[in-house]
Amino acid sequence: MFLTRFDWKSKLLALIVPLVVLTVWQSLVSLHVFSELILIPPLTLVSTLVELARSGELTLNILESLKRVVSGFLVGASSGFILGVVMALSPFLNRLFGPFLKALQQVPEFAWMPLIILLFGIDELAKVIFVSIGAFYPMLFNTWQGVSGVPEKYHELARVFDYKPHRYLTKVIIPGALPSIITGIRLSLGLSWMFVVGAELFGSDSGVGYMMTWGRQLFQIDIVIAGLVVIGTIGFLMNALLQIAETRFLQWRVSIDGRSA
Tell me, what's the pLDDT at 151? Predict the structure, then answer.
């Protein structure tokens, strides 16, 4: 009961900042500190979102962006997962690839965009590659960390039962590293969503980023801000759902490990 009340208080507390932002926003517009052409009123923003949703334009652009997110995430996250497992299990490959990949990680992701455009143009492939870069590194290093951190007693148990490589991987390595892998999935998916919008801003004929660019070119600030709200809301929902899944899995894992002990 105490935990339930605490959760509700936390949720109510989290509403304070958004309400303050809305109040200040409306006050600045009402006092004519900024022109309504630049800083639109909150009610106008709501009206724009409703109109975009009613016309189907918002749904179409969101679906196009999500399609690119899924494609880029699958390519980048799966590549990061495989390489992370291989590097963690092979000290030689870790020494060979580790320093190079860590150096590449320091390059800002958006710095890759000019090179990607030169090599692949601004078609769908370029957007998928850009998104996959964002998904790659969190999955790689979280998988590497998780596999490297599998307790030695699990390895000894696998040797005792003479596990074949496939069984050793699926029954020992992956389950032992799963909490870290799930964290990598959450971070990779979040970055994929941010990167797809950035890719669409560079050049696209659909997607949330395209919608914002189109609004900017027509000086329709309400569409630009609506795009920001949509990006933030979807990103927040993605992260929240994956955090819930991660928390529930970790609770299940703790209970299983407790019974095993």
Answer: 79
